[in-house]
Amino acid sequence: MGFDFTVYKGSHDGKVLKSTTHKDDLKGDQVLVKVTHSGACFTDVHYRQADMVLGHEGVGIVAEIGPDVKDLKVGDRVGWGYEHDSCGRCKSCLSGWETMCPDRQMYGSADLDQGSFASHAVWREAFLFKIPPNLSPEDAAPLMCAGSTVFNALHVANVVSTSRVGIIGVGGLGHLAIQFAAKMGCETVVFSGTESKKDDAIKLGAKEFYATKGLTSLDIGKPLDHLIVTTSSQPDWHLYIGLMAPCGTISPISVDNKDLTIPYMPLLLNTLRIQGGVVSARKVHREMLDFAALHGIKSINMHFPLNVNGIENCLKTLTEGKMRYRGVLVA
After folding, report:
1. Strand partners, 208
2. Dist. CA 287–CA 137, nearest whole Å
3. If 66 and its partner were Cys, which of 8, 14, 26, 188 is the partner (CB 3.0–4.6 Å)?
C-alpha cells in the first residue's frame, strides 16, 4: 500500500530530473503534506549535482495524518525547513538546541528521497510549523530557511531594540535581515557593493546605507554592536573589524568553504565575538513566524512554476545573481 508522489531531483550533470518517491502508510506522528509553494535557496544550487530530491523551504496543506498526530489536522497550512528530525534525548535536544543534535536529520544529509521541490512530502508533526493565519504561503516559504537563519542570528547574538546592527549584503538573506532588525527597533546599517540596492534597503528599514566597492576604509560614526554577514563570499574583514563596538558580535551566516582569516589583535583587544549559526531551533522558528506575521515581514519574491522548467529557470536566475530577492516555486 502506501502512496507515490512526484519529486524533482538533482543529477551528476546538474540537470533537474522529474522522478517518483514511494512512502508506506503513515505511522507514528507522520504527516503527508501536499506542497503548494517552495522557496529556492542557494543551497539547492549546491546540491543540484547530487542524486537527491531538492528543496527545503516547503509550505503546503496537510493531506493525511498518522495515528499519533496530536495537533495538526487535514487542511492545516504547514511549513518545514532545513531540519527534519533529531534524537530528542541528547543534551542539545533537551536544551532547545536540536539543530546541534549529533543525530540531526538535515537537508542534504538525510531523507534524500524527498524535499520541497515535489508534489508531496512526509514529515514528523514535531518538525512541521503551522503557518499563522495572516501569512500567505508564498510569503511563508522563504521564511522556512532564509527567515529562520537571519532571525536565529539576531536571537543568538542577543540583539535588543537599542542595538546598532550592521548587515552586509542586500540579497535573499540580507533583505530579510534588514526587516527583522528594523522591526525589532534596531538602528539598522546596511553595507552593499554599489548604490543599486540603496532604495530597496531604505524601504525595508535601513537607517543608513554604505556602498563599499573599492573602499579601503569606512567611517560610519557610531560603532556597531552587531554585524550580520549575509553575502555569498566573505567580506574584506579589515574593512569591517574597526567598525565594531567593544564586546560586539560578528555573525557570518552564509556558506563559504574558504578559511576564516580575520585581524587578530582588534578581535582580542575589543573582546569581539564571532558567532556561527544555522537555522533556528523549533521554538525560535515559531517565534520567527509569529513575529513576521505580526510585523508584516515578507520577502520580495520572483515566482516560478513548480515543474522541471520552472525549477531550472529559478536556479539559473539564482546562479546568475539576478534574483530579487527570493525565488518561490508555485505548484
Report:
1. 189
2. 17
3. 26
3-9 and 17-23 strand pairing: antiparallel
Cα-Cα-Cα-Cα torsion 180, 185, 191, 192, nearest 10 degrees, comes to: 40
Check whether 320 has a pLDDT greater than 90.
Answer: yes
For 89, the 3-state DSSP assignment is coil
Helices marked H in the chain: 42-46, 91-94, 137-140, 146-156, 174-183, 198-204, 237-240, 264-269, 282-295, 308-319
The tens digit of pLDDT for each residue in 245-300 reads 999 999 999 889 999 999 999 999 999 999 999 999 999 999 999 999 999 999 99
CA distance linking residue 115 with residue 96, whole number of Å: 24
The whole-angstrom separation of Cα 70 and Cα 271 is 47
| Nearest alpha-carbon partner for 305 in 119, 113, 173, 34 | 119
pTM: 0.97
Contact 311, 119 (CB under 8 A): no
Q: Answer for the pair 174, 298: CB distance below 8 angstroms, yes or no.
A: no
Instruction: Check residue 88 and report its DSSP letter.
Output: S
